[in-house]
Amino acid sequence: MKYKRILLKLSGEALMGDNQYGIDASRLEQYVQDIKKVYDEGIELAIVIGGGNIFRGVQAESSGIDRVQGDYMGMLATVINAMALQSALEGAGLYTRLMSGIKIEEVCEPFIKRRAVRHLEKGRIVIFGAGIGNPYFTTDSTASLRAIEVEADVVLKGTRVDGVYTADPEKDPTATRYQDISFQEVYEKGLNVMDMTAFTLCQENNLPIIVFDMNKKGNLLEIAKGADVGTLIS
Question: In the record, which residues are listed under signal peptide (predicted)?
Fold first, then answer.
């Protein structure tokens, strides 16, 4: 296997499947099976999941909700998704721990770096909920920060498209996929990979990012093996 410790970033929207909101059971099950294949290979796995299928903090202001309040609501949405994912993973026989950026002791542990690393070393899948616990930061930023803190080898950003393109492939049929690209090129070309805070964190800490299609079965394992799937940014 190419990687020993992976941080997987999943979007909340991806959990919707074909639904308008909420969690699609079949999509969740597919993710669990893909994660299990990687876990069974002995790879240490941490996961950050978004909350956009339930609530997005950045959209709160348009409905008259204070931005900070909205961001905290978004954090709670990520905890709901994290709990659903934890339950599904444990239903498949995997050992997990859910750690939260805000204190919700009844359902998850507070995030402590040393404890998170110890869980990974003991072969537990660690799910990070509630972002970093502060407003104005996205779950992309959470993924970058947590990956650096637990010394992951790579951030895998699971999306609906199979990598980074010259333009939006859903809008421009002539768009082509980059096999690999440097952090600097992404800046210069203005490509939308992650928010700038998250992206800069990875660049400054030499942490590679792979953007790939999480909805295609087997992709996660192929990446763990070192296959050319998605787009590598380094």
Answer: none
Cα(197)–Cα(109) distance, rounded to whole angstroms? 26
Residue 128 assigned ligand-binding role: no
Class for the domain spanning 5-162+217-226: alpha beta
User: Is 111 annotated among the ligand-binding residues?
Assistant: no
Any known ligand binding at 112?
Answer: no
Question: H or E stretch including 141?
Answer: helix 139-149
Q: Is 22 annotated as a binding residue?
A: no
Question: Does residue 180 have a known ligand-binding role?
Answer: no
Q: Is 197 annotated as a binding residue?
A: no
Instruction: Give pLDDT tens digits for 199-209.
Output: 999 999 999 99
Q: Is 9 annotated as a binding residue?
A: yes
pLDDT one-digit tens code per residue, 74-87: 999 999 999 999 99
Looking at per-residue pLDDT, the higher value among 42 and 60 belongs to 42
3-state secondary structure (DSSP) of residue 234: coil
pTM beyond 0.90: the answer is yes
**Residue 96 annotated as part of some ligand binding site:** no
Residue 159 among known ligand-binding residues? yes
Question: Domain boundaries in the chain?
Answer: 5-162+217-226
